[in-house]
Amino acid sequence: MALERNHKIIIGSAGSMLLLFMLLTSIFMYMLFLKQNSEYNELLQKLNSLQTESQSQFSELSESVLETKNGLTSLGLQIGSIDSEINSLKASVSSDFSGVVEDSIKSVVTIKTDLSQGSGFFIADGGYVITNAHVMEGATQAVIITYDGESHSVQKIGENSAMDIILLKINDTNYAPLKLGDSDDVKQGEQVIAIGNPYGLSFSVSQGIVSNIHQAGENGINAYIQIDAALNPGNSGGPLIDVNGKVIGINNFKISDAESLGFALESNYIKEIVNDMFNQLNGKDLI
After folding, report:
1. Can you name the CATH fold of 102-169?
2. How many CA atoms lie within 13 A of 148 on its CB side?
3. 183-282 has which CATH code?
4. Which residues, at least 6 apart from 225, have a Cβ–Cβ distance to it below 8 Å?
5. pLDDT per residue over 217-230, tens digit each?
6. How far is residue 51 from each of residues 65, 96, 281, 287, measured CA to CA in Å?
7. Against a cut of 0.70, is the pTM above it?
8. Which residues does the annotation mark as catalytic?
9. How many whole angstroms separate alpha carbon 145 and alpha carbon 170?
10. Fewest CB atoms less than 10 Å from the CB: which of 118, 140, 254, 276?
11. Which of 61-65, 74-78, 135-139, 213-217 has the lowest mean pLDDT?
């Protein structure tokens, strides 16, 4: 049966409406897609911007942490330097050697043999100890006792009997050496301390002044600092220290039956002798 004209109009209108609906729906979906894509791109840009900003802030934070660390390290060094200067100032102005002694005494040792007792001190890293040769003379057994009370076996490295110097070594390398000063800069009247073990009184300190310089020793060499600080048996081999905590000599001998007449081998000779002994064995200087 043929469709009537009004039926055709209705069907045509319905088809047009359907097409129009589909078209509008497509346009709507396309617009929605564009909007979502735009929002996605915007979000992606924000994420990238946030990532860049975070990386920048992280870099700034890392630099800040590094600067702080370096600052603390520098501050620590400055504090150490200030402490040293304070100790030196106290010693030079008020004759208070307490700070210098506290820094130095841990590097001093007692040397006990089967014949006698003396003193010594760490001269270089690696457990190297220096003392007077006469402290070890004729001994068949010897031990070194450090400030912490530990006993150590002794190895002889070299000896210069003419200058009464012997270089020893222990196996423990954890002890800090004392620093040598320039004995050519030593002046008459400056204050000094001697650290040693007189009559077995371990790690004792005596104070005095430099009475004279470049004095002749028993070997006839003008290589000794004359001091009025008390030296007694057991002080031999111990360090003579200035107000800056540096070794300017090694306590060597005193005039018998005389008061306040002690002598210490000058530090520049110590350095020359020690390096000469070490060089013969190792081909290089020790200090």
Report:
1. Thrombin, subunit H (2.40.10)
2. 7
3. 2.40.10.10
4. 183, 186, 210, 212, 213, 215, 240, 248, 249, 263, 264, 265, 266
5. 888 999 999 998 87
6. 21, 61, 63, 55
7. no
8. 134, 164, 236
9. 10
10. 140
11. 74-78
